[in-house]
């Protein structure tokens, strides 16, 4: 890390800790040069870096200031979905989202990808390289269907932070969280069965239900507290629901953290109606508060919660390593995994086990949580500045996704087509619904550190939204 980046991080941390409040004047270039023993040009570069991140703003002949706080946009509405099961659609829109070739020219605001440029990932790359050079045949074998025992032991230790005490023998490594969720669904349900889901919900789960011939019953979710327990109880009374699938901690796309009391109440409902819970915790370790929130699984005493997660959002999606703690359904999940991919690739598992045991994982998480929280604040500021008045915006409590709601009748698919000509892509809201709701919404990614190109892309999205709203 360069001197100016180091200095920018120090000043940024002071701003986040409240040592400098919105509107406060920041130390002069000369004062910081003396305090830190660096050149004036280094301080100026640091301030430009903070300016790009939205943490400092220059005033002619006055110096740099902490930007004044703007009034946050209103939260998205709670959509009262029709309480009936539906067949999942939207595959064409999902394929449009994920099917394109990676391109440096495309500013991808829609994909659920973390920032993989952090220097804290270098030890992982070194582990991969070192293991490859050893010419150890163990990296070329099928491996255990459960996954590498060394990695499972590390995952077991990491789960303690979420309140879970799960032995390594009860954990199955999967090819990403997507396989964990798919195996859980297939282990519990048959074609034609009904699965209750939070709404909006992860499009991967929606498409898994579609592929397996199952139906989704969408439950309204509050942008701050998550799934409506009243709606869930009514649904359980009316329909033969086989499983409840949700992302209660750092939800994507809304970003909420379900209160602990609600998590306990949801588990109580599942016990009363004898229904399994598939808990997606892929973003859980990216909660901005510490200690991280407890999982529903941590309260589970009869093994009805299948906890799914991965390293795709905390480290790098290209590792394709996830896991599932399936409780009483272990044998069924193992069978589904065997039917799907069999054993998971050995090399990334061994590298991840080495990365975690070497003490590199927690420092990386701390760095990324702080970065994502700063980026969230900047993204909300940009949306307030560049989008038309009246749009509603989520207030993510973790992760790196934000949800924007335009007025009814707005078409985010048309918006995406307009943006494509400018080399920008967002995620259209309808892919997060089984029935194609939320067409007037979009999801954007703020994982990368704020920069001028990203700000320009957000501005272009806001201007395109305003132009489309004006036409209609």
TrEMBL record:
GO terms for molecular function: DNA binding; DNA-binding transcription factor activity; pyridoxal phosphate binding; transaminase activity. Pfam families: Aminotran_1_2, GntR. Transmembrane segments: none annotated. Keywords: Aminotransferase, DNA-binding, Pyridoxal phosphate, Transcription, Transcription regulation, Transferase. InterPro entries: Aminotransferase_I/II_large, HTH_trans_reg/aminotransferase, PyrdxlP-dep_Trfase, PyrdxlP-dep_Trfase_major, PyrdxlP-dep_Trfase_small, Tscrpt_reg_HTH_GntR, WH-like_DNA-bd_sf, WH_DNA-bd_sf. Gene3D superfamilies: Aspartate Aminotransferase, domain 1 (3.90.1150.10), Type I PLP-dependent aspartate aminotransferase-like (Major domain) (3.40.640.10), Winged helix-like DNA-binding domain superfamily/Winged helix DNA-binding domain (1.10.10.10). PROSITE patterns: HTH_GNTR (PS50949). Residues 1-69 form the HTH gntR-type domain. It comes from the Bacteria. In the C-terminal section; belongs to the class-I pyridoxal-phosphate-dependent aminotransferase family. This is DNA-binding transcriptional regulator, MocR family, contains an aminotransferase domain. It comes from Pseudomonas kuykendallii.
